[in-house]
Amino acid sequence: MTKIRILVVDDQPLFRDGLSTLLGTIDDFDVVATAEDGAHALRLAAQHQPDVVLMDLRMPIMDGVAATRRLRTEVPRAQIVVLTTFDDDESILEAVRAGALGYLLKDTASAELANAVRRAAQGESILTPRVATRLMRHIAHQTSYPPPSPDARRLADLTAREREILTLLGRGASNKDIARGLNVTEGTVKNHVSSIFAKLDVNDRLGAALLARELGLV
To answer: Does the reported pTM lie above 0.70?
Structure first.
């Protein structure tokens, strides 16, 4: 069985050690390292190449947002899920813009957290309901861009199939779900998704999903 490699990043030793112990009891998980700040996380991620990074936000030396932004470039295989106590709009938006695939709160149930790690390893976006509500409310209240917007122009570059897949990304569908629904292979979907990222200038599925919602595809 291939295990999901996890890096836990949190500046509170008690929480960090407790979470690592908990995740270590799950058969398909392998906690490869723990870090107390973002700078330490960058070094360990480069060394251990984790599949998923559980990232706290408020930490000394380098915070979670800065570390997330660096990881998206330096260790692109790692999917970053924020795990924090902060659910204010500013924290959520900063993390998402930095490239976090998911955003969970520390009061998340252990079974829900485990499921989120598995989904993140598959490239799926994960947001707790409270966070999703705040994020969608922010998008809904944003003022519209002067037409034609840069995003709208990039959207025009998509093929019909890519636009269809972008809509499904906006609904939170996984590659497997998209492949099944469109009757194509997962490899074909991955190629389309990579093309969508490049054309829309986004870093990950969450960024594409948010853009799909902002442009009214969902």
So the answer is: no
